Amino acid sequence: MPDRAPQPVDRQLPTEEARDLISLVRDIAQQEIVPKAAEEEDAGRFPRELFTLLSRSGLLGLPYDSEYGGGDQPYEVYLQVLEEFAAARLTVGLGVSVHSLASYALAAYGTKEQQVEHLPAMLGGGMLGAYCLSEPHSGSDAAALRTKAVRDGDAWVITGTKAWITHGGIADFYTVMARTGEEGPRGITAFLVPGDAPGISAAPPEKKMGMKGSPTAQVHFDGVRVGDDRRIGEEGQGLAIALSALDSGRLGIAACAIGVAQAALDQALAYATERRQFGKPIADFQGLRFMLADMATQIEAGRALYLAAARLRDAGRPFAMQAAMAKLHCTDTAMRVTTDAVQILGGYGYTADFPAERYMREAKVLQIVEGTNQIQRMVIARHLVGPEGR
């Protein structure tokens, strides 16, 4: 393995507090995440104790209100924390992003009483969340979901199956979208469901090409009973809540993608400056130098794009189109950069002795989760020219 240490990303951060936060995150990444990443991914081991540490350290609630245990950090800062974690290990970066996504509905749409009761434990009490929208037959077509919640007095009974759930089977709470009314987008309602509620079970985790340490599983709800005090927002508002959460979640995926791409570039640079062929480092060959230059340029462009969208969000301005653009560009960049990193390492890049092949396998899923990149193009086009079939 090359000994050349990667240079930390030179970040433009808004406050001294944010700089201290990034320094803390880098220390945790280097001491607690990187040394175990390859071994734990190979073994399919989820680092639950690390997530407990992150929660107790205030790193699972960064973009939320400090009144409820959050960090009061703007998205501009929170996303750069995600990038640092994803560069160390995508299972961690994506896990933090998904937990934030699962907490969003209650933080943004819950009543004051609900927020006081639940958010402190969710944001800083060691809990881990999961977001339940997709189903076996409805992924991109989220409005077609079939999981039902039927009113029974002052409670709801939830029955159905959710699919592709990150943290499925290990989450302490699930933010669940279920049908409470008519077919289509207006008949869906959001619920906060405890992970240990009777009737919840999970299928064995999916066997994936990457991110083996992050459990992805179907979650079954067999007559799960929750009180009406766990309904989030109004009846029929669930899909609007879900899509609003995804606008922010897509920025999290974009930041994670740039983290993976940066890690791959660092690996390629370290190898290229130390590997010698024909009497000189391979970094001296123009063809390879141009590859590295393109990789670095794509990463910088992606980072600028997700930060521009984050600043719109922080300013309270519309950012849905920019979030879709960032998710599209950054995840495509991650796929290109990680593929090029494997190419630069040659035969070594194809072996598990170096992390380049893991980065490439992990990058692929980022083009799929939280809205495929084909869906992102549809979202962008609708903002530009209006809905189809007008």
Summarize the topology.
Layout: H1 16-43, H2 48-56, H3 75-88, H4 90-109, H5 112-124, E1 129-132, E2 148-152, E3 155-166, E4 173-179, E5 188-194, E6 200-202, E7 216-227, E8 231-232, H6 238-274, E9 276-277, E10 280-281, H7 286-314, H8 320-345, H9 356-366, H10 373-385
Parallel strand pairs: 1-4
Antiparallel strand pairs: 2-3, 3-7, 4-5, 5-8, 6-7, 9-10
Q: Summed up, what is this model?
A:
The chain is of the alpha+beta class and 390 residues long.
Walk me through the structure:
- It contains 10 helices and 10 strands.
- Helix 4 (90-109) runs antiparallel to helix 6, helix 6 packs antiparallel against helix 9 (356-366) and helix 7 (286-314) packs antiparallel against helix 8.
- Strand 4 and strand 5 (188-194) form a beta hairpin.
- The termini are far apart.
- It is globular.
- It has helices spanning 16-43, 48-56, 75-88, 90-109, 112-124, 238-274, 286-314, 320-345, 356-366, 373-385; strands at 129-132, 148-152, 155-166, 173-179, 188-194, 200-202, 216-227, 231-232, 276-277, 280-281.
- With 390 residues, it is of the alpha+beta class.
- The strands form 3 sheets. Strands 1-4-5-8 form a 4-stranded mixed beta sheet. A 4-stranded antiparallel beta sheet has the order 2-3-7-6, with no helix packed on it. Strands 9-10 form a two-stranded antiparallel sheet.
- The mean pLDDT is 95.
Q: How would a textbook summarize the main sheet? A: 4 strands, mixed
What value does the Rg take, in angstroms?
21 Å
Assembly type: single chain
What is the average per-residue confidence, as pLDDT, rounded to a whole number?
95
State the shape.
globular
Count of strand segments: 10
Helix count equals: 10
Distance between the termini: 57 Å
